[in-house]
From TrEMBL:
UniProt source species: Penicillium hetheringtonii
InterPro entries found in the cross-reference section: DUF3431
Pfam families tied to this protein: DUF3431
PANTHER family: EXPRESSED PROTEIN, PTHR37490:SF2
Designated name of the protein: Uncharacterized protein
Domain of life: Eukaryota
Length: 277
């Protein structure tokens, strides 16, 4: 049982999740996150109570925190939590799943200040409908234009046995493809926070996600940190985007958050909607 003031917060968060899974909470959006006991989750509870969103919180402690969901491994930071959510709730996903970090402030939240709840309040779900996957960050650096060259690691990476030296093999194992299917370049905006539609998640079979999670649990190519690094470089591909997916900053800002200008040049952008070519 959690101790002190955290206990009622945990109980309410667990209760909201159970209301969703028992069909008494008709939520169209899930918040998916991995948390430690040191994380202040008050903001998650307040936001879910305000919006009706359903929280799916995974404990990432060696001694699991009672009530929260448990991934089968702690390797790879949030990766096993994200994958476990998709696998466990594959057949009862809400319309949208927001994969986010637990701490209320993140340096990579770029448009509305560091507080994640301010970013979430401004998401245009029409963009998620149209694209299937959207990164919550629009600034291209770090990660774009290219974050990794799987087929051409540097000699330094090879010499020090960095995961970049084995990225092609990791890609083959994760996606179950031959080497000729490994892209030469991979690029996407960092940093592991994104929104995905139900249809896009289900465009890949549950068995695919199970294979990816098995790789996270068992790979000997790299350490725990390297596992997380690899998945962070691949989430956009896992969810159906091109190997290099670096939307123009101004268009991302317009599509994802409705901030369409006019730009200093006088250009006025149009926000994407489902059905656009």
């Amino acid at each position: 049982r959690p101790d002190g003031p955290r206990y009622p917060i945990v109980q309410e968060l667990v209760g909201l999740r159970e209301q969703y899974t028992s069909h008494t909470l008709n939520s169209t959006v899930a918040l998916v996150l991995a948390a430690q006991r040191s994380d202040d989750l008050t903001w998650v509870l307040d936001y879910c109570k305000e919006t009706g969103f359903a929280p799916f919180i995974f404990t990432t402690e060696q001694t699991p925190e009672p009530g929260f969901l448990r991934p089968p491994t702690l390797r790879g930071r949030e990766a096993p939590a994200y994958l476990s959510y998709v696998i466990e709730f594959y057949d009862k996903l809400p319309d949208y799943s927001l994969f986010i970090h637990a701490y209320p402030e993140q340096w990579h939240n770029d448009l509305f200040g560091p507080f994640t709840h301010k970013t979430l309040r401004n998401i245009r779900y029409e963009a998620v409908d149209a694209h299937g996957y959207v990164n919550l960050r629009c600034q291209l650096d770090p990660g774009c234009p290219i974050a990794a060259f799987p087929l051409n690691p540097t000699q330094t990476d090879i010499d020090v046995h960095d995961i970049r030296a084995y990225f092609a093999q990791a890609y083959q194992e994760i996606f179950d493809v031959p080497r000729e299917k490994v892209p030469g370049e991979i690029g996407n905006v960092c940093c592991g926070q994104f929104a995905v539609s139900r249809d896009r998640i289900r465009a890949r079979s549950k068995e695919d996600y199970q294979r990816i999670l098995y790789w996270v649990r068992t790979t000997e190519l790299t350490n725990d940190f390297g596992v997380g690094w690899v998945l962070e470089k691949l989430w956009h591909i896992i969810f159906g985007m091109d190997s290099v997916y670096c939307p123009r900053f101004e268009q991302c800002r317009c599509d994802n958050y409705g901030w369409c200008g006019p730009l200093p040049s006088g250009e006025l952008l149009t926000a994407v909607k489902k059905g656009d070519p």
